[in-house]
Automatic annotation (TrEMBL):
UniProt xrefs under PANTHER family: GLUCOSYL/GLUCURONOSYL TRANSFERASES (PTHR11926), UDP-GLUCOSE IRIDOID GLUCOSYLTRANSFERASE-LIKE ISOFORM X1 (PTHR11926:SF1047)
Superkingdom of source: Eukaryota
Keywords annotated in UniProt: Glycosyltransferase, Transferase
InterPro entries: UDP_glucos_trans (IPR002213)
Keyword Transferase set for record: yes
MF-aspect GO terms: quercetin 3-O-glucosyltransferase activity; quercetin 7-O-glucosyltransferase activity
Region: Disordered, residue numbers: 1-20
Pfam families: UDPGT
Biased composition, class Basic and acidic residues, residue ranges: 10-20
Gene source species: Gossypium raimondii
Membership in a protein family: Belongs to the UDP-glycosyltransferase family.
Official protein name in the record: Glycosyltransferase
Amino acid sequence: MFQITCHTRTSKETGKKMEKQQKSSHLVLVMLPFQGHMTPMLQLASILHSKGFSITIVHPELNSPNPSNHPEFTFVSIPDKLTESQLSDKNVTGLVWSLNKTCPVPLRQCLEKILHSHHHIAALIYDTQMYCAQTIADDLGLPGITLRTSAATTLLLYPVFSQLDEEDFMSEIKSPELQALHLQRLRGLLSQNPAKEMMEIRVELTNALKSSLAIIVNSMEFLELEALSKVKQYFPAPIITIGPLHKLAPAICSSLFTEEDKCISWLNKQAPKSVIYVSLGSMASIDRQELIEIAWGLSNSKQPFLWVVRPGMVRGSEWIESLPNGFEESVGERGCIVKWAPQTEVLAHAAVGGFWSHCGWNSTIESICEGVPMLCKPFFGDQHLNTSYICNVWKIGLELQNLERGNIERTIKRLMVDMEGNDIRKRAMDLKEKAAFCLVEEGSTSCSFNGLTKHISSASET
Ligand code: UDX
């Protein structure tokens, strides 16, 4: 089995040979068309391109990336045949299932076309949830590599733990770290969704993971040590942790929404570490009453806040028209509401002292990298797992138990003002340092990338 090592120094000749091979190496990347998946895939593409690979990105029509933002890549759009009702349903599981039904034929045709026009394909790298790509890679004799954009621990949750019986499951979670994740509760959430689509996704995704040549994860070794060692017992392929991708490819422009830079000039006027940044990611939604509770909770906390309300995020509203009377007057200049923010820039801003998040994996990693403590309100899927990591394992945040104004006000104060927040902030800064260390020359991520590029080169030669 392939081993990743740090010993990457080669003779000048070997180095030149590798560089020459990589220059001629062509990678095809298959994207899942959701913001939290497209961003890390484009970041990975950018890093691999900088290492000498040429890149073709194949993507469904839904949420097509803008090719003019990435002139260095070739983009190929494939028909996804998603219907209006599927799109308006906003059922992510259903969409993932459908994409894996409709994309295989055009994806295969696209790959055959690339191969027929004598282009070499060194590897097919696909989002784990576009698992149909692995079967096509196997059929065409291409090395298939999967990119997991969530925590590595999810590799246990969906394909493994959901299928174990109670006794086996309990025997798997003896370690304190895994116990602190409350995986039982998460497994319960999963098994409450026995929809045909979910069952099929679990089986097919697991099969793809087991056939892939390598599993790349946008994570860092030290964040998930115990879970990673367990994951390695279940999958034959090497697990390659290459996070934080956004720090390695900071210039990638991947937003599906327009970023409102005015919030940066507003942040410039705020005191250091005083602002709570509130964003629920690209998919979560709330109802009107919840919007009202959040508004009063923020107002009553007396902390300055930057609040992202995506158009359509409030069910039944266009944007913020259901904000309560008197809210704007009570908040004045202390609050700033935008439709979409330049999040990584916001989190790195000196004025930001806390991040109220839905705990999507990208947001979690981005917050860790800036040492920003978190207030967690997960909505679905892996967001619950990430919350358990943040609050119970890394202890860099507090969980918001419900969206009631008094509770919101109290929890914001606990994080931002009370003594309790001091230890949390200190741990968040420690984690930031560890994350930065992954990126130095001998750090785990740098080693992983060297291993990954070598792995691709040797796989494509055989
Ligand atoms: C989805 C799922 O919700 C999540 O659980 C899974 O881990 C990935 O896919 P999403 O809702 O998109 O994630 O959240 P997240 O993973 O945090 O990604 C959101 C991305 O949008 C982040 O990279 C963040 O920087 C960016 N963002 C968000 C902005 O740039 N501006 C904003 O205003 C809000």
